[in-house]
Amino acid sequence: MHKFSSYKKFIALGLMTAMCMTGCSTGGRNSGETPPQPVQNETKTEENANQTSTGNNTENGTATNDNSAGSVSDESESKNENAILRDAVRERLGGFVGCAVTGSEIDDPKVWDIITTHFESVTLGNELKPDALVGYSVGTCPGTEMAELNGEQIVVPKLDYSRAEKILNKILDWNEENPDRKIKVRGHVLVWHSQTPEWLFHEDYDKNKPYVTASEMDKRLEWYIRTVLTHFTGEDSKYKDLFYGWDVVNEAISDGTGTYRSDNENPNESLSEDRHGSNSSWWHVYQSNEFIINAFKYANKYAPEDLELYYNDYNECSMVKRNGIAKLLKEIKDAEGAPGEGTRISAMGMQGHYGMDSPSFVEIQDAAFKYCGIVGKVQITELDISASDEYDGTADTADAENERLAERYKKIYQSLNYINGLDDCEVSGITFWGTVDHYSWLQSRSNVGGGNTSGLPQMPLLFDQNYEPKPCFYVFTETE
To answer: Peptide bond preceding 359: is omega within 30 degrees of 0, i.e. cis?
Structure first.
């Protein structure tokens, strides 16, 4: 039987099951009336990177009947205590498994041990974002210098690579000492409305002065992408073999409308803020998707041929946003061409910030299949699961929550493996947004949006506060 026929039968079964369930399918980290205020995907910024509190982000909905699988507790006795996550995922999925890490976590020797034992790739949670690369000087430009761009001398802000290089150097050292267990890196992110200093969009890099024109901003865009990619992936860079891919553009689609994120996503948020949780100064300058298309053109121009280039977004399974993302992917794909002439896109990054009940498995599969139909490949890039309302942070509720979490992860993983078996769809990797529960971004509220939205305790990842694997860890070590 053709795999697409199997897919349609599977979807029909899922839809029948979904009709018996309650709840909406927001598909991401956000709930409420339209237009909602988007909740950003990212880990804590440097200002609050060391905070540890409790938080939650809930969603609902479910699908697909899988009574034959058995419960996680039924299988716990047969789990492999010595299983290595990266080997098991590579064997079953055929792709990599990664995690996110920030500078504060990388100094924890127990986290480092988990990373080097179980993960094949790392995403730097904050250190390659624009605000980090200007030394977190978000209120004022840290200084300027002259740069040549296409035969023209332009004034550009000074960049600071030290935070990223601290982590990258540690990974490089590990790779040199362990050539059979190398760790690769995902670059995250070149163009994003949030954690990009507002002064970058203004004359003389002063947010109190007028916005620059789109043509002037385009020079800054090309310079920035060229400089960052050349520094980390250029032929003379010591990091050139470390990166497997880069998120070119992040979260450019609106939650409320499914069209492009505008400069008025949240009317209560001023564009004069140093960096934004919702509103886009990129859109304010361009008033079109030109900056997105150009970002992929410049990334194609300056990135090595073997460096994968991605679009990355959250709430990626909700129907409204899914259709908007698909439209954007097609526009990027339609503009493809040779380096220096057109765009290039390698895969869609489905962030995977899911709740205990939603998005449904049918929604995950529908979204992945839709994106694969345009770009051929998807990756789950920031996977975590927010806690159920039944979990209150106490030991009395922890066992039941661990059971729920393991069952949820199990069915998501089954769905991803099913998708990966379709003729025209590849799931090439899964990245978890963290390693141990107490460092999760869901434990606090970021000042640019995201994380804790309700104050409830969280346990979203594969390892607990004692750095021990949880029942959900063993879901991903099954090889059949």
So the answer is: yes
All residues at 6 or more sequence positions from 179 whose CB lies less than 8 Å from its CB, including other chains: none
Catalytic residue, chosen from 42, 222, 251, 363, is 251
Q: For 72-118, write each residue's pLDDT tens digit.
A: 444 444 577 789 999 999 999 999 999 999 989 999 999 999 999 99
Nearest to 167 by CA among 130, 128, 129, 114: 128
Distance separating alpha carbons of residues 431 and 454, to the nearest angstrom: 25
- From the candidates 59, 105, 127, 382, give the one annotated as an active-site residue: 382
- Longest CA span, the chain: 67
Judge whether 247 lies within some domain. yes
Which element (helix H / strand E) includes 323? helix 319-334
Q: What are phi and psi of 9, to 5 degrees?
A: -65, -40
Cβ atoms of 448 and 45 closer than 8 Å: yes
Confidence at residue 444, expressed as pLDDT on a 0 to 100 scale? 81
Q: Tell me if residue 382 is catalytic.
A: yes
Owning domain of residue 106: 3-475
Torsion sign, CA atoms 16, 21, 26, 27: negative
Please state the pTM of the whole predicted model: 0.85
Q: What is the spatial distance between Cα 432 and Cα 447, in angstroms, rounded to a whole number?
A: 22
Determine the Cα–Cα distance for residues 373 and 355; give it in Å rounded to an integer. Answer: 26
- Asked whether residue 480 is domain-assigned, the answer is no
Q: Quick one: DSSP state of residue 449? A: S
What CATH number should be reported for the domain holding residue 271?
A: 3.20.20.80
Burial class (CB in 10 A: 0-12, 13-18, 19+), 92: middle
Burial degree of 398 (CB within 10 A; 0-12, 13-18, 19+): middle
**Closest C-alpha among 250, 350, 248 to residue 307:** 248
How many domains are contained in the chain? Answer: 1
The yes-or-no answer on residue 165 being catalytic is no
Q: Is 117 exposed, middle or buried, given 0-12, 13-18 or 19+ CB atoms closer than 10 A?
A: exposed
Taking the C-alpha atoms of residue 390 and residue 399, their distance in angstroms, rounded to an integer, is 11
Query: Which residue pairs, CB below 8 angstroms and at least 24 apart, start in 332-337?
Result: 332/292, 332/293, 332/296, 333/374, 333/375, 335/293, 335/296, 335/297, 337/300
Q: Tokens 């430009």 map to which residue?
A: 141
Q: Is 57 inside a domain boundary?
A: yes
Tell me, yes or no, whether 411 lies in a domain. yes
In tens, the pLDDT along 421-448 reads 988 899 999 999 999 999 999 988 655 5
The answer to whether residue 56 scores a pLDDT higher than 70 is no
